[in-house]
Structures are given as C-alpha cells and as structure tokens.
Amino acid sequence: MIDIEVRALEATLFAAEEPMTPHGLAAATGIENVKPALARLAALYEGHGIELVERGGRWRLQTAPDLAHILRREKSEPRKLSRAGIETLAIIAYHEPVSRAEIEAIRGVQISKGTLDALMEAGWIRPAGRREVPGRPLTFATTPAFLDHFGLASRRDLPGIEDLRAAGLLDPIDLVLEQQLEVANPDEGD
User: What's in the keyword line of the UniProt record (predicted)?
Assistant: First the structure.
C-alpha cells in the first residue's frame, strides 16, 4: 500500500507543467518534509517506464532513458542557435555570473543583443543582478531550464577540458596552440 504523502507527490508531479522545487511541492501538497517522501516515490518508480529525477534542485517525472526512443517524435526546430549563441551560452555556463563586457572580452568580439535575447527566449539564461562597479553592468547566469535541457544535475556536471578533448570537441587549432605552449614552456607543467 502506497502512503498518502507519496500519492500526493506523485499526483502533483504528474500534473506539473514544469519541474518543481521541494519548497513548491511542500506548498502544493501540505507535506512538511517532502524529501523522505520523494525518496520513497523514487524507489517506487525504480525499474519502471517512468522515473523520478532531480535536476538543478527541481523534481519531475520523466520517461526512463532506455525507453525514450519509443516516445521520440520528430519535431521541427523553429530556430537553430547560432555559433555566437553557442559560444555565449558556454561562456555564461562556465563563468557565471558574467557581464556582457566580460563575455565580449572572452570571445574577442562584440555580441549582438539578439544573441542574449535568443538565449533568454529559450529560457537558458537569466539576468543575475548587477556588478557593484561603475556603470553597474547587468550580469547573466544559466537557469534550471538550461540544466534540465542538457541533462545536468548542476553546473559541476559541465564537461572539463579533458572531457571535451576526449570527445573530439576541441578545434584542431586549439590543440596545436596548446602543444606549442607546452613546447615553449616545458618546465611550467612540473
């Protein structure tokens, strides 16, 4: 027999339009401490076609990864992210909170306002406050939707340089430059 707390969480998560925080679940269900009930619900779904997952501190029910291909539907992407958009998103993810000027300094070129707008429209970045410096520039950070879209539990799950190299995602010019720096400064690595 499933207890009422687990059933209440299950119903709330099933009806939710987006992932929910423990605080939001507690408010919706009236359960004071939802974490033990979430653990029981996760155990209940273990090995089933649906699983309970946490991404960025938010919980949701989703199709088990090994069955996702059954439900995959072809859909057209209304707009692809430009190379500038991908670079900007990566800079924000790895350096957040980061201002527009800092993004431009890292990229080496100016970014158009449309690039940031496209990332905000996708729900992957958000304004994260202002720096306490002259001009008080606006800073940007990633959102829980970014983590959810890319299947990350937290920013710590972003791939490191070794992961990117192993996946073949570094430009050959980057590898050549890195090798040249190692040859030029052989004692710095020791």
Answer: Cell cycle, Cell division, Chromosome partition, Cytoplasm
User: How far are the Cα atoms of 9, 100, 101 from residue 130, in angstroms, in the given order?
Assistant: 37, 11, 12
Token reading at 65? 């990864």
**Residue 175 CB partners (closer than 8 Å, separation 6+):** 165
User: Where does 4-71 sit in CATH, by number?
Assistant: 1.10.10.10
Mean pLDDT value of segment 35-41: 91
The three-point CA angle 66-142-105 to 5° equals: 125
Pairing of strands 138-142, 58-63: unpaired
* Cis peptide preceding 97, ω within 30 of 0: yes
Write b or e for each residue in 46-56: b if 16 or more Cβ atoms lie within 10 A of its Cβ, otherwise e: eeeeebbbebb
Q: Which residues contact 186 (CB under 8 A, 6 or more apart)?
A: none
- Where residue 13 falls among pLDDT bands split at 50, 70, 90? very high
Are both 4-71 and 83-158 of the same fold?
Answer: yes
Contact 142, 96 (CB under 8 A): yes
Neighbours of 19 (CB within 10 A): 21
CATH architecture of 83-158: Orthogonal Bundle (1.10)
- pLDDT at residue 174, rounded to an integer: 57
116-135 pLDDT per residue, tens: 998 998 889 999 999 888 88
Higher pLDDT, 85 or 166: 85
